[in-house]
């Protein structure tokens, strides 16, 4: 159950604000203690994902907008998954690993400050608090453990399959809670 600011309960499996539309099963255990407290509710969460993006003028832009998403997975993937998706690349394909992110709206600034301290002490060093114009206080829990690597240029693969496998192993080691899989 996810609790909104006004105390109403929402089911975690209902569509949320993220494009995925649900809470990742790998982050539910982290989110549940927060949603059980009146002063917090989550607005989005992602346990970590691997993206393969194609497009851009020279293939090396870092934004996700205006790019073709060749592969998106919140689960661990293998080299063959990436190789198959790369066959659709026309421009510069980039492999990205995005680590856990959690957005928590807090009733009061003091609540956000306490949760922020916990996040920083738990190695989520890229976390921060945002206070909106209307007083809405949002905490973003973020890690610095991302990865972004170009794999192709103008549709031509620039790395070996062995290197792609190596990158996926690095992503796996950076992904909180998923290291023991595979």
Strand order of the largest sheet: 3-7-9-8
Number of helical runs? 4
Could you please say which CATH topology applies here? SSo0622-like fold
CATH architecture: 2-Layer Sandwich
In one word, what is the shape? elongated
The CATH C-level class name: Alpha Beta
Low-confidence stretches: 1-18
**Rg over alpha carbons:** 18 Å
The overall strand count is: 12
SSE sequence, one letter per element:
EEHEEEHEEHEEEEEH
According to CATH, the homologous superfamily is tRNA wybutosine-synthesizing-like
Class inferred from helices and paired strands: alpha+beta
Question: Mind explaining what this structure looks like?
Answer:
Helix 2 (79-86) packs across helix 4. The chain is built from four helices and twelve strands; from the N terminus they run ββαβββαββαβββββα. 24% of the residues lie in helices and 29% in strands. The radius of gyration is 18 Å and the shape is elongated. The strands form four sheets. The protein has a four-stranded antiparallel β-sheet with strand order 3-7-9-8, with helices on one face. It is of the alpha+beta class. The chain has one domain: 2-Layer Sandwich (SSo0622-like fold), CATH 3.30.1960. The longest helix has 14 residues, at 161-174. Belongs to the TYW3 family. Residues 17-174 form the tRNA wybutosine-synthesizing protein domain. It catalyses: 4-demethyl-7-[(3S)-3-amino-3-carboxypropyl]wyosine(37) in tRNA(Phe) + S-adenosyl-L-methionine = 7-[(3S)-3-amino-3-carboxypropyl]wyosine(37) in tRNA(Phe) + S-adenosyl-L-homocysteine + H(+). Its EC number is 2.1.1.282. Pfam families: TYW3.
